[in-house]
Protein: Glycosyltransferase WbuB
Organism: Sphingopyxis lindanitolerans
Amino acid sequence: MNPLAPNGAPPRLIVLKQGFDPEPTMKGAAFARRLGELGFDVEVVTGFPNYPGGKVYDGYRIRPIKRMVMQGVAVTRLALYPSHDKSRVGRVLNYASFFLSAALYLTFFARRADVIYAYHPPMTVALAAEVAGFFRRVPVVLDVQDMWPDTLRATGMIGNDRLLGAIGRLCRWTWRRAAHIVVLSNGFRRLLIERGVPADRITVIPNWADEAGVTAASTSRPDTLTEPGKFRVLFAGNMGPAQALDAVLDAAAILAGKRPEVEFCFLGSGLETERLKARAADEGLANVRFLPRVPMAEVGAYLAAADCLLVHLKADPLFAITIPSKTQAYMAAGKPIIMAVEGDAAELVHQSRGGVVVPPEDAGALAEAIASLADMAPGDLAELGANARDFYTGHLSFEQGIRNLADVLHKATDQRKGV
C-alpha cells in the first residue's frame, strides 16, 4: 500500500520527536529514512541535541529554526531550553520550551502535512502535535512510549496529585484527538481502553533494537572487559530512580563473598549513577564496575563480552505493562537475559525461552538466578542466547515493526482524504 497525496505526490509526513540523532534515541535517522522508502515525504521536527548531559552538543548552536539534511533525511531543529539534570524546574523548562517551539512551527511555518507522527514522551510533544493538527486539520498518530502521568508518579518526578490530575486531563485530550495511537505493549493497550480510548484506534507495535549497533560487535572485547575467569552480568542503559538499581547492588553484596567470579557491570549514565558509585565504594563492592556511556555503535561489543544481560525496574504496577527498550536490544544481541520486571516484559522472556525471570527489587532472587546461570555449561548459556535472538528475529525486528507503522500512517492519510 503506497497511496499518493491528492496532488499525486507521496503523502507528506512530519515526524515530531524532541530527541533525534546524534542523541541516543529510539526511532532515529534510520527509522525516518525507511519511512521515506516506504512511500512518505518525511520531515523530522526535533530539538537541538542535548540529551543525556543537558548540554548542547559540539557543532550545534541554539537558534529559533535550523534546517539541515542528516543521512538523507530533512531535519528541522527548533529552539529549546537544554536540561536533563535532577532539577524539576529545568526539566519543565526543557519540555515546555520545545512544546512552544513545535506548536508554533507546525501551526504557522511548516509545510502542511498529510499526517503528523508524534513520539511521546514527553507528553508535551503529543500536545504540540495535537494543537497543530487541530488548527491545520491534519490527522495525528501518537506513539505512546510512556504512560503519563503514571510514569511521573512512579519515578517520583511529580508527587502533587493536583498537578498529576491536570497532566492526566491533557493526556486524555491528546488521546481523544488522535487519529490513531501506537503502543509498545498489550498492557498499554488495555490501560488506554480502560481510560476511554476506542480499541479500534490502538495498535500494538513492539519496539525494535538498533540492530546495526547491537550486532556491530568487534572481534575483540573492550579493553575494560578482558580479565579472564569472570562471569559478567551487564546492565546497560539509563540509571535513574525507575531502574531501582540499589536492589542490584544488594545482590552484588550477597554474591561478593560466595561467588568471586561474578562481576556486575553497569554501562551508561543517569540521575542515580554518582550515588550508586558512591554506595558501591563505601561498601567495598569490588565485584561492581561502572563503565562510562559509549556510542551506540560500540554497545554491541560490550553486550557480546557479557555472559548475561540484566533488565531491572522498580516494583510498580506501571512497569508491569511496559517493555523496556533494552529488552529487544538484549534479545538481538543473542545473550541470556535476566528479566527483573513483571508483566509484559517477563512474558517475552518466557515466550522466547531466552533467559530467566525474577521479581523486581528482590535481591535474594536475583543473586540466586545469577548464580544458577554462572553454574550452567557454556553450551546451555549459548542456547538461551540463541533462543532470544531467534525470537527477536521472528517477532520484533525493525522491518516488521516499521512496516506495521507505515500501514497505520497510510490509513491515517486515507482518513484525511476520506478514502
User: Anything to note?
Assistant: The CA atoms of residues 176 and 196 lie 8 Å apart.
